[in-house]
Write a structure and sequence with these properties.
two-stranded antiparallel ribbon
Length: about 200
């Protein structure tokens, strides 16, 4: 009887040990996986939290389209158009079309002053030194181009010190002065100032 109990006890003990080993192995094999998954998840979470904010780069001046003209382009812009250097701001046909349109309406260009080609127009737009007549002529061509390019309407009102004046009338008066060989420097300077106000026409 004693031997049977001993054998039974040993058998039960062995069974318990085997069960414990089996359960432990399962736990041991499962724990690292769960732990690894937790670590990976934690790492992923950390990576997401620490990821730097992606911002779009600020546009550079060189990224801006050169063909984009200001509301009413000034002399410098038109000089670049007809300079024949660098990236053109408007295509050649359009630039020539502006000159042709000016020639169809003006009494100064090209009958009195040649501005029928890009080269001649650029020369007119580049007066030298203190040449008051040259400056007045350049200002006149700029005003005509502002109209030909569609930036200013013919009936737009130009704000002058003496009051508002329609663009068409201002151009007519300016041409009279520019064509007058006896026009004084003061008159020519006044024309240049008035034509510069075309940029503020409404």
């Amino acid at each position: 009887m004693s031997r049977r109990r001993t054998r039974t006890t040993v058998a039960l003990t062995a069974a318990l040990v085997a069960a414990a080993l089996t359960t432990g192995a399962g736990i041991a094999s499962a724990s690292p996986s769960a732990g690894s998954a937790g670590v990976v998840a934690g790492a992923a979470g950390t990576a997401i939290e620490r990821a730097p904010e992606v911002r779009a780069p600020k546009p550079k001046a060189t990224d801006m389209p050169e063909s984009a003209a200001p509301a009413v382009p000034g002399r410098g812009w038109w000089k670049h158009v007809y300079a024949g250097r660098g990236k053109p701001r408007v295509d050649a046909a359009t630039a020539q079309g502006y000159l042709d349109t000016v020639a169809s309406r003006s009494s100064v260009f090209p009958e009195h002053t040649d501005a029928s080609t890009p080269a001649s127009a650029h020369a007119v737009l580049s007066p030298k030194g203190r040449d008051v007549r040259g400056r007045a002529t350049a200002a006149l061509l700029v005003a005509w181009l502002q109209w030909a390019g569609g930036a200013v309407a013919e009936d737009a009102l130009v704000p002058l010190k003496s009051g508002e004046l329609p663009l068409s009338e201002l151009l007519s008066r300016a041409e009279e002065v520019v064509l007058d060989p006896s026009a004084t420097p003061a008159q020519l300077r006044a024309v240049t100032r008035d034509l510069a106000r075309v940029r503020h026409a409404t």
